[in-house]
Amino acid sequence: MQWRLAFLTGLSVALSVILVGGATYTVARWSLLDQLDNELTAVAQDLATTVATNIETMGGLTSGTLETSNGLMSLVRADGVVSQMPGQSVDLLAGPEEISIARLRAGSSARDVYEGDVVYRAVAVPLTTSEGHYAVMFARPTTALESTLASLWLVLLTAGLLGVVTTTTAALWTARAVLAPVRRLSLAVKSVTQTDQLNPIRIYGRDDLGELTQSFNTMLKSLQQSREQQRQLIADAGHELRTPLTSMRTNVELLVADDKSGMLPEGARSEVLGDVAAQLGEFSALVGDLVALTRDDHLQRPHEFLDLAEVTDSAIARARRRGPNINFAVTMESTPVMGDPSTLERAITNLLDNAVKFSPSDGTIKVDLRDGTLTIVDAGPGIDEDDLPNVFDRFYRSDKARNTPGTGLGLSIVAHTAKAHGGSVRAGNEPGGGAKFTFRIPVAEVPEEFRD
């Protein structure tokens, strides 16, 4: 990138130098020619005054008279006849411009005349006498003019080349200095790729590159946290899966041994098979909760308009089947929200299942829904203050819950769902006893098509 920037800068300067140099050279050449033409015209007018005294002898002028100025002179008659100055070694021939000046008896002309390898600048002025109409033509070599223009061109070319080289070098140095943080960032990214170490990158300033580095560090931190969460999930899942698998393997080995030796007493085989079925159910529930917790496809699906009261009512129906003798004191009002009905119902069901699990068989579970806030209070012993900060952690189980069925992932799924819907969930205790869970998600405005 630095070479590209230097090249583009040098190219821009080169184009500017060409334009400015060309314009300077053109203006200087035009100005010098105009100055030379004015000078030659003044000399030609002086010569015309002298020639007018005697046309035959051209006023007594000879080549020696103009030797110091290295000039040439000729007299052009209106009919095109040209008379050269006596003693002149080079004939100064007339053209249509000079003949027109003689005939019109007014104006002046200026043009280049080529005689061999020498270029002359020739001017003509009118001369009218009693003997006829003429044009006095005077010319001088442009050697001095061309030398001056050549020197000017050399100066412009040298200055332009020096300017381009200097500017390109300065642009290269500046680009190297400016892009140094980009190179450091690139090296850091390459180091992360090669070493797999998510170390933050040092920030050298508060400019745009500093903000870019800060954003990259934020990404690294998020990636590190995600990696740690993934490792923790794998470790916790492995630990939780090991227990039912070990128990299942023990029971299966016992059944295999009983097939060979008949070692189990009557009725014991049915009990072992029942344990295996229960362990399979526990294993299936754990795998299902892991899939639900780690799957983020509902985040990509667009949320739809729904009534949270209907979702809650469906979850309560499922909870009643799991706790047939438990009473549900339900107070609900219509609550329009934007969300995914399946994940919301699963989260609310998990809260209700938790309440059913810790409530006595004849207890009452209070369910209250209003203003986007769902409150569930069970009839159990409540949650210890030490356990409150951790109840939504994956696989966390309090001492009271260790001997109860469950995977330790239900409340984690609730927290994950609340966050995905822009809401929150909080755990606490009801003053009269029992655990209290407050589940909140934003209330949505009812669309036109759903209004009565």
TrEMBL record:
It comes from the Bacteria. It catalyses: ATP + protein L-histidine = ADP + protein N-phospho-L-histidine. Residues 236-445 form the Histidine kinase domain. Its EC number is 2.7.13.3. SMART domains: HAMP (SM00304), HATPase_c (SM00387), HisKA (SM00388). Residues 176-228 form the HAMP domain. Keywords: Kinase, Membrane, Phosphoprotein, Transferase, Transmembrane, Transmembrane helix, Two-component regulatory system. The lineage of its organism: Bacteria, Bacillati, Actinomycetota, Actinomycetes, Propionibacteriales. This is histidine kinase. It comes from Tessaracoccus palaemonis. The chain crosses the membrane at residues 152-175. It is an enzyme of class 2 (transferase). GO terms for molecular function: kinase activity.
